[in-house]
Amino acid sequence: MSEINKFIGHYISGKHYVDNGEKIDIFNPCNNELIGILSSATDKTVKKAVDEAEKAFKSWKNIPVSKRVSILFNYKNLLEKNIDGIAKLISSDLGKVDEDAKAEIRRGIENVEYACGLGETIKGEYNKNISTSIDSWSEFEPLGVVLGITPFNFPAMVPLWMFPLAIAAGNTFILKPSEKDPLSTLLLAELFTKAGLPDGVLNVVNGDKSSVEYLLNDSRIKAVSFVGSTPVAKEIYNMASKNRVRCQALGGAKNHALILPDANIEDSTKQIIGAAFGSSGQRCMALSVAVVVGEIKDNFIKELVKQTKKLKVGLDINDSNSFGPLITKEHLEKVKYFIDLSEEEGAKILTDGRDILKSKNSVKGNYLGATIIDEVKTSMTAYKNEIFGPVLQIIHVNNFIEGLEIIKNNNFGNGCAIFTGNGEAARTFTSEVDIGMIGVNIPLPVPSAFHSFGGWKDSFFGDLNIYGPDGLRFYTQRKTITQRWPSSNNQNSKINFSMPTNN
Ligand code: NAD
């Protein structure tokens, strides 16, 4: 390990910065070799980041929108040019296969493109002659210093959901990435500086929850975007609300697919396999439960098992494997525990990902194969929890209504899908289900950058969803101006505006 790569620090005011905070080891999940040591931000470093962001806000908010956006155009080009390098870092500390890593960067770049159109979206609202000779308009002003806290599973895409839009709108930003895989996020920040972003507009502080606590208690932070697990999302939302900080907190998930008897078996199994096991199931939109209705059951399961057995779990991230390892040894143990428990509670294992652990090559990495668990009941422990691994649970029901009720009774509400050839059933499903993002014959209904992303129930705490039109509203505050210019030959000059009468 070279000295340069040894200590992973922070990116503050356009420079890499290492302090002497608590050390966290960063491992390659493919072999558990040490690839770096993260030096967590001390309170002094966190304060320095907020100081710099606050200072930069004073000038950044007044830079014309066309100039701000031109830097974003440069940034988009630089991200595209550096996609291989960013993907390599994602593969090294998260273990994503190359194709998956590049796909997440491309989805992230779509959000930079959306932010490039800010001149159009931030125009505001105007009403001439709202009353005689009186004009009124609303402007959308930046908030100030905004904080983003991101999870390990999308170290490029999720930060790109946040900071390009916030910064384009005139805010300055502090990003606190996951302490498990900080490498690619630091490169994202460095590239923004190369694109022309002034120092202090985007700052990255690394560390765990102690850095977050310090940041949330700094009254200069005006808003926080959080993406991570539900218990932490709830905690952050409560803490932010107590401090009167605007907050959107996106949490965990348990996403169901309802498969009706008229579904196309070949297509639906292919879609469900990709959505359940891609990225080792470490996706908040992963399809983790298939609710199968009636007589399709035998053919569906036969095809699902046949196709799943063809998946290759990556020991070498550079070849054409389907998915890589889990993020840490502890996480692997947790997922295995849920599989063991499912068996003990009476479910049936159709494909057993634990078999891979018997293979010699996989011993060092956090690998688990694709696991299908059949005959799952909603009372089982593994059903009630988010597993976040390559595990698909199957529940059998007699009819559409029974399936719909199962989905509605689940506490999470991030995403779901229906597979059917029946338009009426699909329409009823999308109307009745209480979930934020729904796919019809689409397994991962992640909204494009032109819409906004967010779940319902225990998957989301806040009012405005992340990115897209809601994202822009979240990162701005409305100012409404009502204006009158009295003149001697204008009737309006004689009007008395004192409350309560306007006559
Ligand atoms: P996590 O909640 O453990 O951590 C997320 C972030 O919060 C990290 O930066 C972490 O350092 C910080 N953190 C952890 N504990 C904290 C605490 N007590 N106080 C303050 N900050 C704290 O999540 P994770 O394991 O990194 O990511 C996986 C989870 O994220 C899954 O539950 C997944 O469903 C969810 N997720 C949700 C979405 C979504 O859009 N809804 C997207 C991606 C991931």
Q: What does this protein look like?
A:
The protein has about 500 residues and is an alpha/beta fold. It folds into two domains: about 5-125 and about 140-250 and about 460-480, Aldehyde Dehydrogenase, Chain A, domain 1; about 255-440, 3-Layer(aba) Sandwich (Aldehyde Dehydrogenase, Chain A, domain 2), CATH 3.40.309. The protein contains 17 helices and 23 strands. It has helices at about 5, 45-60, 65-80, 85-95, 100-115, 120, 155-170, 185-195, 210-215, 230-240, 265-275, 295-310, 330-345, 380-385, 400-410, 425-430, 470-475; strands at about 5-10, 10, 15, 25-30, 35-40, 125-130, 135-140, 145-150, 170-175, 200-205, 220-225, 245-250, 255-260, 285-295, 350, 370-375, 390-395, 410-415, 415-420, 435-440, 455, 460, 475-485. A seven-stranded mixed β-sheet has the order 15-16-17-14-13-19-20, sandwiched between helices. Strands 10-9-8-11-12-22 form a six-stranded mixed β-sheet, sandwiched between helices. A three-stranded mixed β-sheet has the order 1-5-4. Helix 7 links the parallel strand 8 (about 145-150) and strand 9 (about 170-175). Helix 4 packs across helix 5 (about 100-115). The protein starts with a helix and ends in a 19-residue tail after the last strand. The relative contact order is 0.13. The model has no long low-confidence stretch (mean pLDDT about 95). Bound molecules: nicotinamide-adenine-dinucleotide. Nicotinamide-adenine-dinucleotide binds near residues 150, 151 and 250.
